[in-house]
């Protein structure tokens, strides 16, 4: 960041320019439910209480950001490839348009960043503002140029639930302020070219704001030239003033064709990664409708789905013939969605392993270290249980467990309740004793709410659409013939299209198939199977899909040999026989466990 002197502007918003020890305390008493006792459970490794700043600290960050005049990514924009005038390519920025209320865009989020650098001087402080969108109760989608190089956990604050910016004194005008737990930006983001400009912030606790969904990987209709899209933000409202809008603004922008964008920006525009929108700017505020500085990271919306993220544009936003440029969301769903649906036991973006020891029925978890697992920690006795699955049914960012009781087949959901700091358990299904398979793969139906699947004794695969609160809509039949498989597993996206998939293995011959999710319900939920491996039970007697073990955004698979050696098959994102990379041993002592989930 540039170290220019700081001063308080008339605008109350910093205007960014893009381009540029495990806590194992066991509960003192067994949890209870209407159906009886449940196992004692440890607290999560990372809890919100340990990560959330105080309200006073969050308010300090907000007011500091409001007074700031710094620019995310500043100083890295001078070498945009192919530009004839590199100095004019700065941020996508709303001139024109109209003010709107939070009821029309309840998912809008304000991202405030303030770092006083630990000194008494103000000349080295960093303060700026970006927009974002709530895409899950604990997830904010924004631009990578607002995130990369900054420590949002230490210096960030997110305000939701209000259309008005906070006052200089910290009045949130009915909004809610949150800290940031984790941050992610696209691994290939370039501050020089502003390519791959996608990021996700994870909050420590759910917000009440209604989420908005991303578009799908296969969406082309939303990007048809002339299609109307809406952009939202609090950025500059004039090319001649640095003042931002104190109230949320929106504007309708027509989508432009790739050819038009390329004619305008040359090789600075990357087809497939970017989309531009808006009528050609007139050279002045009059007749121009455009995003502007301070709108960075905000959403471009078509049919209530995010199709773009405000990324970059031209200096002062109104250069004749220019259009606003957005990161094209359809091209990044595969990389971004795993970061939206990435709950795990230890809260570090890597899926962990849950096990039960056969000899004493003790449950254990082992935190992923990327390509190996840490030492196990005990979860107490899990006697009388024959299935344990990891999921996050209420989308609060903390991993839940779903388990089945052996005696009567009743299925229970146990979750960590953030507000009370304790676990709670409830029965979600009665008498699933005859179900041959139960799967918790995530969101199958495309509504961002995790679902449960089961195979009944007749081989019918059923989808139970989740409602996000541990209850389910009426079951939907997805197919028949599923008792041909000795294994049906899934947790996440195996082929990189942002949709939840299944892995199934036939009995006897051991053919392993990928069932690619479509994001639909019913018999259309999965595309035709694709054979990806041949692994009989003599090769591997257990296949486990806990999710993204390595933390690279792709679902992985664990396979156990009869002798107890467990192998990690890292996902590649390919829907072919190359779906997994070369196996890596993660241990030889896994024969002792009778449940792995």
Query: Approximately what portion of the residues adopt beta-strand conformation?
Result: 25-35%
Count of strand segments: 37
Count of helix runs: 5
**Overall geometry:** globular
Question: If you average the pLDDT, what whole number results?
Answer: 84
Terminal CA distance:
45 Å
Class per helix and strand makeup: mainly beta
Helix content: under 10%
Largest sheet: 8 strands, mixed
Residue stretches low in confidence (pLDDT < 50, at least 5 long) are 1-36, 75-95, 237-242, 284-288
Cα Rg: 25 Å
Helices and strands in order:
Layout (H helix, E strand, L loop, with lengths): L31 E2 L2 E2 L10 H4 L3 H13 L30 E2 L8 E8 L10 E11 L2 E4 L9 H4 E5 L15 E3 L3 E4 L13 E4 L10 E2 L13 E6 L15 E6 L3 H8 L8 E4 L21 E4 L2 E8 L11 E5 L4 H8 L12 E5 L4 E5 L10 E5 L3 E7 L8 E6 L5 E7 L4 E8 L7 E6 L8 E5 L5 E4 L11 E4 L5 E5 L12 E5 L4 E5 L14 E5 L7 E6 L8 E5 L5 E4 L14 E4 L5 E4 L1
Parallel strand pairs: 11-16
Antiparallel strand pairs: 1-2, 3-13, 4-5, 4-7, 5-6, 6-10, 7-8, 9-10, 12-13, 12-15, 14-17, 15-16, 16-17, 18-19, 18-37, 19-20, 21-22, 22-23, 23-24, 25-26, 26-27, 27-28, 29-30, 30-31, 31-32, 33-34, 34-35, 35-36
